[in-house]
Description:
heterodimer; A: Rossmann fold; B: alpha/beta; 14 strands
Amino acid sequence: MKVFIYPTNSLILSDLVERFGHEPLAVMQEVGKKVRTQSLDSPPMNITPEDPKLGLKYAAVEVPSGVRGRMSLFDPLISNAEAAIIVRDPVVSFGCMGCARTNELVNFLIRAKKIPLLELDYPATEDEAKEFVYKISQFLKNLTAEGKK
Amino acid sequence: MSTENPVRIAELSCGVEYSGIQKEIESAVKQVNAVMVYPEVDIADIEAIEEEFGLKVASPDLKLMMARAKSIVTGRVHVDAVFVATCFRCAEAAIVRSEIRRYIHEKAGIPVISYSFTERTTAGTLLTRMEALTTTARRKSLLAREKQSGLTAGIDSGSTTTKAVVMKDNKIIGKGWVPTIKVIESAEEAYTNALKEAGVARSEIQALGTTGYGRFLIGEHFKADLVQEEITVNSKGAVYLADKQKGTATVLDIGGMDNKAISVIDGIPGMFTMGGICAGASGRFLEMTAKRLGVSITELGALAVKGKASNVKMNSYCIVFGIQSLVNSLAAGSAPEDVAAAACHSVAEQLFEQQLQEIDVKEPVIMCGGTALIEGLPKAMEELLKVKVIVPENAQYIGAVGAALLVSGFISK
């Protein structure tokens, strides 16, 4: 299944999803598509002033351009998500999502999709970390089982 | 091609790459022979910055901005100037932007400009700001000049009017002020008038400086010795005309198309903003108000002083809606003097609300440019700021005087 992850640039989450046989929907793929296009018009990520306009699909014009530009980048991830894992309050090194307003909107849209969703807090201790990985693995295994049905 | 070392400008921003305008910033910076620097920070710096800075924010990119600001202040990275930019309409970012600007300016003493952008921000919009930032960083010795010497001239090609002055031994000896119609022709006319009044021939002028919107075009036409943006030139012109060259000052210039609010220390800009999104806060709005009231722009100020702004509701950011309020209030029987006062108050209020929050307003407050002569405007500004506003003699020639003064530094070369 296509699994949306939050933070969307978390390498650990992305790796976990892949290990359990699913396809992680991570922002790195979208950035990769943009920078590997034939011409690099707008470094560093090739997001042009047209992208915030595409973000109008999710947020009105009075919403800051940075939010709308980010939303245009996340659009394919949100649209294609069949399941999702949202980690609440992660540390920066786990995966950094720059804009709090965008993050609120992205998480809301994922919740509103009514797809299988695992929401959990970022662990603070080693025991919590083990529990954290266990819950994610169980969630991903259940997705596999559901997929087979 | 310039042989000077590029000015190092630190970019502290949130959202520029996602708004698609990073390229525009880079382009503006390149045009003024500067390079953008992105101060390196560790993850530990980002994690600790809220506690150290004393400001808790939800967006990690804003934490990164604060960590980068600290990196500049502690000297981990060397930069000559700082550009702080966040998305227009983001409240959290506006708070961080403002505090970072103040923090760097106070602790590092380097010039800072803050800017809120949209996806429509272009290199052209940023150019004057970047030019001012690099000039302030690069030409401190030139900007330290307090007296004009020799026989020099300055031309300010503004969006509405073109002004020219001829100066000799620290005195204005000739002036010209004409509407800007065709940029070069209007500059020729203003310059000719100034030369005629001064009683000197063009060939006698030892150095010429140009500023304003048309500075590049007229600079090339007149083979100017100095072509300079209006932020630094106006700062210099304002403190010179007001005789406030030492210490702090705030310079306000409501122009035909945009407004400048500059926080000055010893005649050199420290923090500044240049507004230009909403025409309801421009000199153009006052021009249209005068036309609708059937008075000339030179009579509007005196009329406004007689009126009471609070009798008419007018505070639109948009020039069209502003005129609509004006027409409605006249139709409802408001007195023309009250309408004139309300128009002045509306423009002053918008400058106060939109721009003066971006700089530290320190006395004396000097109001310059042609609009400063509309008496109702400085009066409205005084009411809002609760401080005395100085309008120096020849306030409309601020740019031309600043250019003539600064260019006198080129005579000996």
